Amino acid sequence: MKQIRYGIVGTGGMGSGHARTMQSVEECQLVAVCDAQPDVAEQVGEEYSVTYTTDYRRLIDLDSVDAVIVATPHYFHPDIAIYAMERGKAVLCEKPIAVTVSAADAMVSAAERTGTPFAVMHQRRSEPIWQAAHQIVSEGRLGEIYRTMMVYADFRSQAYYDSAGWRATWAGEGGGVLINQSPHSIDLFTWLGGLPIRVTALTATKGHVIEVEDVASALLEYPNGATGYMYCSTTEAPGTDILELSGEKGKLQVIGNTLRLWEIPSGVQGFSDSSPEMWTRPEAVEVAVPLPEREAGHIAIIRNLARHLLYGEPLIAPGVQGRNTVEMINATILSGRTGKPVDVPVDRPAYDAFLETLKATSNYGQKATGPDRRVTDHVHH
């Protein structure tokens, strides 16, 4: 079987998980790894008997590398990805693809300019439940969308935030729950519901000693007049994961791993306009939704990029769509910090200037955290 030869940049956390996962992907071969810490690069390189380096340019320039997984802290994603794309190396970038939407623009522009395949590690898209949900929306079964809602509430300990000097700092990470824990949920939210045209947000730091937000909520306005709500936090247990879209012809609800669909044959507005009765309501018929049998998780995205390169298989998570997540993150952070509504698309120069003022007061490099603890998330799959 033909194989795509992968190099991984950043192997202390998620990158090492991807290296393990890749061993089970027939279409892939790990050939090189890179990490800023020499001992980490050497350890992972020797574990898999592959070339190792501390210079991402050296890895990308290797003739033996066909595609690159970028798994470094967020701020480094654009430079590495663009360098790779300009050298014709396909890129699979960890989420979020960038800290600012202007940097995401540059990545998308590089992919379009060079014609290089570009994907983002939004692996939840590969799950059967989300594939089914996306198909329902794409087929128009909900009709015109009137309301969207997403709640992602999770938990992180103070020890998690203290595990590295860059975590939960403006200069090291560029945000908090919105940019680190929520991107997968925000990706699914925008993948199904689209981008709003205006965001009015509240952000706060409630449960941790950090300089960025651990709670964010936002009211959303859409081009067709629909409204929405988004809530993200790392201050709750047990966790909550809800997405709901309500339309003229139906309602879609995903709570955890359960998908429910109601179809409204008459239409909500159609029934309201035509019914002579005061206290009746349109019939809502719950419909069973078959879930496709398919591979899911990180392994599905890694294999998908390889099969895209080998056989032209469509990308599950194109990098250009990763920009929508960053757009939502930037709009919510900016609105929450300024107390004003923010239009989408976000004003790129304004956001860049805003973030620079926060970075100037960041305590990145001054946090008394001890040595960085680079541990792969135990739910890596």
Task: Describe, in plain words, how this protein is organized in 3D.
- By secondary structure, the chain is an alpha/beta fold.
- It folds into 2 domains: 4-122 and 296-316, Rossmann fold (3-Layer(aba) Sandwich), CATH 3.40.50; 125-293 and 325-360, Dihydrodipicolinate Reductase, domain 2, CATH 3.30.360.10.
- It is 34% helix and 23% strand.
- It is built from 12 helices and 15 strands.
- It has helices at 14-22, 38-48, 56-61, 77-86, 101-114, 128-138, 158-161, 183-193, 268-274, 298-311, 319-338, 348-360; strands spanning 4-9, 28-34, 51-53, 67-70, 90-93, 118-120, 145-155, 198-204, 215-221, 227-233, 235-247, 250-255, 258-263, 285-287, 342-343.
- A 9-stranded mixed β-sheet has the order 14-13-12-11-7-10-9-8-15. A 6-stranded parallel β-sheet has the order 3-2-1-4-5-6, sandwiched between helices.
- The longest helix is centred in the C-terminal third of the chain and has 20 residues, at 319-338.
- The radius of gyration is 22 Å and the shape is globular.
Q: Tell me about the biggest sheet?
A: 9 strands, mixed
**Overall 3D shape:** globular
* CATH homolog superfamily of the largest domain: Dihydrodipicolinate Reductase, domain 2
- What string gives the helices and strands in order? EHEHEHEHEHEHEHHEEEEEEHEHHEH
CATH fold-level name of the largest domain: Dihydrodipicolinate Reductase, domain 2
Rounded radius of gyration (Å): 22 Å
Assigned CATH class of the largest domain: Alpha Beta
Strand content: 15-25%
Structural class: alpha/beta
Please report the distance between the alpha carbons of the first and last residues: 24 Å
